Amino acid sequence: MDHSKQKLLLTLLIEFGNSFSKQINESAINQEMERYIRKTVRDFVERQYRGSVFDKEFKKLVETIDEAKDEQNLVFNYHTNRVWTEISELSVKTTSFTNAYSIIDILGKNKDAFF
């Protein structure tokens, strides 16, 4: 995927990690995944993955989280689920206007002046 899409996904991953950390994570799987998500997002930021390395690491992250959701009852609150849905959709297709507006809404809530 191209660099601008990778940057957008990284921004959404940071938002996802922050949102997931703020929700109440009482179950063992949620606590385990919180550590995994925090470490993985930090690696994305610090190591500045690009190109095929980004794609490979990102795919591994998506598969791990989707597996935990499907098989181990990983639970997301509303906002975390919304961010994850956008990440999942953006990772498999190009951005539509609907996706773009949703992403602006998600990221705009945490900014003083988005535009």
Strand fraction = under 5%
CATH topology, by name, is de novo design (two linked rop proteins)
**Class in CATH?**
Mainly Alpha
Unreliably modeled segments: none
The structural domain count equals: 1
The amount of helix comes to over 70%
State the end-to-end CA separation: 26 Å
Count of distinct strands: 0
How many helices?
A: 5
User: What is the CATH-assigned architecture?
Assistant: Up-down Bundle
Radius of gyration: 14 Å
Protein name: Bacteriocin immunity protein
Describe the structure.
- The protein is mainly alpha-helical and 115 residues long.
- The chain has a single domain, classed as Up-down Bundle (de novo design (two linked rop proteins)), CATH 1.20.1440.
- It is built from five helices and no strands.
- The longest helix is centred in the middle third of the chain and has 21 residues.
- The mean pLDDT is 81.
- This is Bacteriocin immunity protein.
- It comes from Companilactobacillus suantsaicola.
Layout: helices, strands, pairs:
Elements: H1 3-22, H2 28-47, H3 51-71, H4 78-92, H5 97-108
Helix pairs in contact: 1-2, 1-4, 2-3, 4-5
